[in-house]
Design a protein that fits this description.
Elements (H helix, E strand, L loop, with lengths): L4 E10 L2 E6 L4 E5 L2 H21 L12 H6 L5 E6 L14 E8 L1
Parallel strand pairs: 1-5
Antiparallel strand pairs: 1-2, 2-3, 4-5
């Protein structure tokens, strides 16, 4: 069994806008609802990894978010795991093997 990677996403509201920030990849999604930013974040993760695979540039996929964003996870009110479907449907794994993300609401 290959190792899997779990990504942590901090979700918070700023004014009328919801924000999701991936801690390990430093990518951000914004939207009008928490559900919308969750869905958009998963799409962004897949797009980022797909672009890196297509361009032979995997070393640039993982870049940590700023420390102030990391500190928000300690104040999360709740967290929920969500599975990610395979990047390539006919394969049984996501490359890199990201199989789930944890959304933590701060």
């Amino acid at each position: 069994m290959s190792p899997s990677i779990k990504l942590n996403i901090v979700v918070y509201k700023e004014g009328e806008e919801w924000i999701a920030h991936c801690l390990q990849m430093d990518i951000v999604a914004t939207g009008k609802s928490a559900k919308a930013v969750e869905d958009d974040m998963i799409a962004l993760i897949k797009a980022q990894v797909r672009f890196a695979i297509d361009n032979g540039n995997m070393e640039n996929v993982f870049k940590p978010a700023p420390s102030e964003i990391w500190s928000m996870i300690g104040h999360a009110k709740r967290c929920a795991l969500r599975s990610i479907r395979p990047l390539i449907p006919h394969k049984k794994e996501f490359i890199p093997p990201v199989k789930e993300v944890e959304f933590c609401f701060a």
